[in-house]
Amino acid sequence: MIRRRLLLEWIAIALLALAVTCGFVLGGMTSRIDNTLYDALAGLRAAPPSDRILIVAIDDDSIAEIGRWPWPRTVHARLIERIAAARPAAIAYDVLFPEPAANPREDAALAAAMRGTRVVLPILLTAPGANGRAFDATPPVEPLRSAATLGHVALPYDGDGSARAALLEVSEGGRTWLHLAEQAYRLGNGAPSPAFRRAAARGQPGVLVPYAPPGAFRTVPFKDVLAGSVPPEFLRGRFVLVGVTAGGLGDRHVVAGAGALPGVEVQANLLNALLTNRFIRSPSSAWQWAFAAFPSLLLLLLFLWLRPSRALVATAAIFVATAALPVVLLVIAGLWLPPTAALLALLIVYPLWGWRRLMAIHRAMSDELRLFAGDDEAPVRPARAGLDPAGSSAIALSSSIARLRDLKRLISDTIEGVSDPLIVTSLAGQVLLANGRAQALMAAELTPDTIMKLANAAEHDELTLADGRSFSPRRTPLADAAGEQRGWILLLAEITAIRAAQQDREEALEFLSHDMRAPQAAIIALLDGDGGKAVPEALSARLAGHARRTLRLADDFVQLARLRSTGFEPEETDVRDALAEAADAVWPVASRKGVRVVVDEGEPCWMMGERYALTRALLNLLDNAVKFSPDGAEVRCGVAEMMEAGSRWYEIAIEDAGPGIPPDRLSRLFARFGPVGRSGTQPSAGLGLSYAHAVAQRHGGSLSYVPVTPTGTRFVLRLPALSE
What we know:
With 724 residues, the chain is an alpha/beta fold. It has 22 helices and 25 strands. The strands form 7 sheets. Strands 1, 2, 3, 4, 5, 10 and 11 form a 7-stranded mixed β-sheet that branches. Strands 15-14-18-17-16 form a 5-stranded antiparallel β-sheet. Strands 20-22-23-25-24 form a 5-stranded mixed β-sheet. The longest helix has 34 residues, at 340-373. The protein is rod-shaped.
């Protein structure tokens, strides 16, 4: 949820940045600032003044020497003759002649001087024109109009009163007028300029001119040329521009980067740009908007990966790059990208993003503090401590982190206090935490592959290391605060001592089953052989009985121990057949006492059980019944089927006519080595009944004792029948 909310905030800020830059660019809201920057930088793109351009200035000294302005047109005719004699590339005579002279012979003389010479005269454009026209064109009077090439000198102004562009071509009343500088270029080079061809191709006659400062071009006074003081070689092959520079006479224009320039210097700058093909281009509004939006979007993308300190550095770097790129492009490529919209967008995006992040951090800290405090109803409101809410939350968070450190120390001490190796892993088996014993084990023999297998396996066998130590792995899921599993807790319980005790137990059983039985068997063999003839018969019988009892006791103990230490491996077994086998095994003892063992006959009774264990349990019960029955008595055995709670059971009953079991001994009837002797007999070790009881429980059944009236004992072994 938090991730989604932050992503939505990022998208909202990005859309806001796009909208702001679009408004700045398309609405022209930053044009005044951009124009100021352009005016300050445009001069960097201006080409060095061409040596082919020469200005003949009608300056204050020329006015003082020649006389009051306007001069007779014969003066202009003599100047043109002087210049024409030096064979210039072209003459751009930036002086208007809209009205005829007082003496027609003056116009004729000026026209005669211009014929045969490449001369361009300006036309007068008056805006607005009559009858709704944009402007009216007033060419020079005849015969001057016919003797010269005509070109306009109109200069479009922007809203702030500065001129930045020039129109290489204008149309009026179905007629097209080329600019005076373009006409001079064509007269001197015999072809249109590359700039004009580009402007015609895109249908936009306007070009941005990089103006040089005042006085940048080579200039000679009008009077010196008229007097012949300027050598002809100084004029030969050059573009000669004649115009007024004297104060208060000619037109002056405020142009970008150069301030106020006389009209003749304006024409010289445009002609210089045409000769060097060095202009300034301005991309379309779409490209300007893309440039304005890109830095903000780039910064927003970086915000997703950078830390706050690096984000601040990135913001400063992008701001500087955005401000410097237009300067570099203007100087190197002549491309002007207004930077103000992009810079303002950066100034808006960074604090806005910082505010949203501060809000998100404050909200997240408050939520986490609330959850940490365990109060889901009301948010935690930390004490202000003289700080703002975010600072107070930071202090509260620091306090909570201190509590977490205490908790971490408690967990660490608890883990270290575990006597067995304990390892916390990820779901992939990577070790996240381990106590000292586990680390020592990993440094010795526990490999990462083994840990990964222990973490990923559902069940584990014992882990035995090369040094003989044994461990029992126990795995517990590790969950995060949301309850999702994130790893495992592995406890390697050391069972080396248990396995050693089991080994000792097996050795003890081996001792009982072999080493202890061997001497007793040897005694019986000796008494039954020739060596027993030297012993009195009564003593021999008693010694043999004690030896056989010892053998039986050892065998019962071994069988009971093995029964409780081995796994349950049942098979289909006929209970009635097992009872018959046990009755056959007890027949020798019963026959010596004259006791009859009566077994009821019937259909097979199948169950899932261990035949050997069942047969031995029944043999123990029959042996006790025969042992405690009087001579000539009868022991009855039978199998009955019964139903209980929808399940079938077999009840095997063995009943004798012995003295029964005293009530004070019933509490330890099935205990090992308990005093369970019958009335009037010696105590018994009780392993037979204990074994039978263990077999009953092992098969999911029970063994119970039922007294018989007036005397006798009845044991009932209850076992589950095989499902049909």
